[in-house]
Amino acid sequence: MESYFTDLAPSILRNIPDVVVWLTGIVLAVIMVRRGGGKPEKLLLIACSLMFVMQLFNPFVNQLIRWLVMEKGMSNLGRAQAMGLLRSIYSTVLGIPGIVLLVCAFWMRFRKKKEATA
Predict the structure, then answer these.
(1) 47 confidence band (pLDDT: 50, 70, 90)
(2) HSE toward the beta carbon, residue 110, CA cutoff 13 A
(3) Containing domain of residue 50, as a range?
(4) Residues 6+ apart with CB under 8 A from 16
(5) What is the CA radius of gyration of the chain?
(6) Is 114 helix (H, G, I), strand (E, B) or coil?
(7) CB-CB contact of 62 with 83 (8 Å)
């Protein structure tokens, strides 16, 4: 268990910039929504929140996956495959919807401005 915490600390330190960026995005999106923002601002808030949660729990999930895979009697190739599969499932569930919502929010926002000028 001691190894879990010694491996976790560097992972947390590596993720601090990402967490700060997404937290800043959440704060800015909340300000925009409170000032009467529409659907694009709400989508931005949801997308930033999903990405924030993913980056916040990323070190813990990585350590949990490593712990789960190392306890089994597998070969190194089997461990690498299992770790890759579990990691990709985690990234897919939170990361892909976050990116899609982020793209949709920006697309909706700039499409409205382009239609208004036309």
Answers:
(1) very high
(2) 5
(3) 2-117
(4) none
(5) 19
(6) helix
(7) no
